[in-house]
Request: fold
Amino acid sequence: MRMHADGSEGRPYRLFFYAGDRDEPPHVHVERDDNVAKFWLTPIRLSKSGGFGRAEIRRIEQLVIEKRDSLMEAWNEFFGD
Reply:
């Protein structure tokens, strides 16, 4: 699953799942340029990040909160749950 959302300075974030993530709790990976983050979806919390500053992580977290329902729906469709 891939989804794009507006990010810092109008550059899009790429939100996605890896097929190998099936055995982990629901989460989403977020990338922009060489920056990465992983957020658990239930409850929403940062798992790990690299390259994003604190303020941007907070913006991404807000984006994940806003899109949580559609991300959970996409997770369940992607993994067939």
